[in-house]
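Please check this record.
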Amino acid sequence: MKTAIVKTKFWDSKEFDQLYLDSKIVYFYLLTSPSRGLADIFYVNLKVAQAHTGLDITHIEKGIKQLVSLNLIKHKDSYFKLLTNAVEPKKGRFTEASIERELNEIPNNITAYFKQNNTGTLPVHIDKDNNKDNINIIINTKPIKTVDENAKKIAVDFGNLVIENYPFAKIEPDKWAKDIEMIHRIDKQGYDLIDFIMRWSQNDSFWKQNIRSGAKLRKQFETLMIRAKSDSDKNNKKWIKI
C-alpha cells in the first residue's frame, strides 16, 4: 500500500460497533492492505489475506459479507472498494496520474460494477489556493484497452500457482495478463504454448523461484521453452506442438 492516512474516527461509527470480531479483522486488513494503491478500488488475493490475518477462508468470506451488508465496502471477484472517508492516500504531484494508471489496469466489468454506487472515497483535486469548496471529482476519460480473455485466464492460473508455491508472494494477475498478451501478440507465441510453459516453470524447482511475474515470464520465455523441451526429451514426456 502507498503511504496513506487512516482516520481513527471509524472506531466510533455505529456500523463498526455491529461487526463481529472476524469482520473487524477483515476490515482492518482492507484499510491497511499492502495490495492497496492510490485508487479506491483494489485487488486482494484471499489466500494471501489468510496468511496475513490468520483467519481461514470461511471466516474471511463471512467478514466480507457482513461488511457489504453494513455498506462499509463493496466487493466483486476479489476486488474491493472502501465506502468510507476514514482513509485517504497521501497526496503528491503524481497522485492523479498514478490513480488513473491503477484504474486503467482494473477490468472494465469491475469498474462498471463499482460505479453503480458512487459513495465512498473519491480522488479530489484542491486548487492551488487551497479552496476546499472547489472540489472536482477526477473522471477517467482515457479509453481502457481490453485484454484478451485467454491472457486473463492464464494470468489468474499463474497467480494461483505462484501462491501455492509461495503463499507470501505478491501477485498481480491483471498486470500479468498484459504481459502474457504481449507474448502472444508481439512475440507470436500461441496461448496453449504460453499456458504449457507457465505451468512447467511453476513445477520446476529452479524456475519457480525466478518466474513469479508476467514480465519475468515474457523475458525468459525462449529460455524456458528450451529448458522445457530438453526436460520433455530427457524424460520421454509429451511435448506440446509450437
Summary: The first strand starts at residue 4 and ends at 6.
